[in-house]
């Protein structure tokens, strides 16, 4: 049976991640808590809006209401990387060579490792930013579609249009597809080689959590009574194919998904705090946590693939050890 090391905090957990194999939990007030031979804490932003786990550099990037971007390193060290005056930071992402991107208002910015910052202005608000898996290229989620920029050059941006408000953005790990979350209960995608559209609809709620399976074979998503797992193995992605539905619970809603780093398995978190693990091949389920005070908002696997850090909107956090 899995074992759980709980950590009850006071506030909405924005991110639960492992830094140097130590679980860290980031709350909406900008405080960062870690289980490192006891409960320890530090402070980053004054009011937190967004986070991104920079696995390549083993750090957490945070942005908040104070207009500042911080890097949180293992052991609780906090470094201010950039600031945008009094404007709220609405999205952050980490990229290659120590670069990071952030969004505020109608602009996206890329900060390079040497501290130089480049701005990309847009006609409407920028809602999400993400780096492509190869090269210094960023994707921007905006109203009526997405825009692709080459951050290190002056190339012409690529405009990908689709009516509606696009709120988040992710590239497939192979760089062949781009997927956005939408204000409506749907995902939208583009095949980047030819611009073909991929409509992923039918969700009863907004999709707030996405996670790619190893090598990008599947994309797991929240927003339904089951985890909706879209197939991306073929050259046209999920077009014309039905998704898997894992961990179906008619009386609950999936609020968070986190794919296993090495196998086609997903940890699935629900609005009542329950956590399941489900295998794609045969839909087999294992109960990891019975429930709690709030909806699961963040989950992450450790590098050894045996522990899952989790957090909820009520602050009940912890670590599940699946090795028993």
Automatic annotation (TrEMBL):
InterPro entries assigned: Apc4-like_WD40_dom (IPR024977), Quinoprotein_ADH-like_sf (IPR011047), WD40/YVTN_repeat-like_dom_sf (IPR015943), WD40_rpt (IPR001680)
Statement: the UniProt record of this protein carries the keyword Repeat: yes
Pfam families for this protein: ANAPC4_WD40, WD40
Source organism superkingdom: Bacteria
Domain Anaphase-promoting complex subunit 4-like WD40, residue spans: 261-322
Keywords, ordered alphabetically: Repeat, WD repeat
Annotated protein name in UniProt: WD40 repeat domain-containing protein
Species whose genome carries this gene: Aquamicrobium segne
């Amino acid at each position: 049976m899995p074992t759980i090391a709980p950590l009850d905090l006071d506030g909405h957990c924005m991110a639960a991640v492992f830094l140097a194999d130590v679980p860290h939990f980031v709350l909406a007030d900008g405080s960062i808590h870690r289980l490192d031979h006891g409960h320890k804490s530090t402070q980053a932003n004054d009011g937190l809006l967004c986070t991104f786990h920079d696995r390549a550099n083993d750090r957490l990037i945070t942005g908040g209401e104070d207009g500042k971007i911080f890097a949180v390193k293992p052991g609780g060290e906090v470094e201010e990387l950039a600031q945008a005056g009094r404007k709220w930071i609405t999205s952050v992402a980490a990229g290659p060579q120590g670069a990071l991107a952030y969004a505020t208002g109608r602009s996206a910015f890329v900060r390079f490792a040497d501290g130089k910052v480049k701005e990309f202005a847009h006609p409407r608000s920028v809602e999400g930013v993400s780096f492509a898996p190869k090269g210094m290229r960023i994707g921007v989620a905006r109203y009526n579609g997405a825009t692709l920029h080459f951050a290190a050059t002056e190339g012409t941006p690529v405009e990908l249009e689709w009516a509606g408000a696009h709120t988040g953005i992710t590239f497939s790990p192979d760089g062949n597809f781009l997927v956005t979350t939408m204000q409506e209960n749907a995902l939208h995608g583009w095949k980047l080689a030819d611009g073909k559209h991929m409509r992923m609809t039918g969700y009863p709620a907004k999709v707030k959590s996405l996670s790619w399976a190893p090598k990008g074979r599947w994309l797991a998503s929240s927003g339904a009574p089951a985890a909706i797992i879209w197939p991306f193995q073929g050259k046209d992605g999920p077009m014309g194919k039905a998704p898997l539905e894992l961990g179906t619970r008619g009386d609950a809603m999936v609020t968070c998904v986190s794919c296993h780093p090495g196998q086609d398995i997903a940890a699935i978190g629900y609005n009542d705090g329950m956590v399941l693990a489900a295998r794609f091949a045969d839909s087999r389920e294992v109960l990891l946590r019975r429930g709690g005070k709030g909806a699961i908002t963040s989950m992450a696997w450790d590098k050894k693939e045996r522990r899952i850090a989790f957090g909820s909107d009520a602050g009940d956090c912890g670590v599940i050890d699946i090795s028993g």
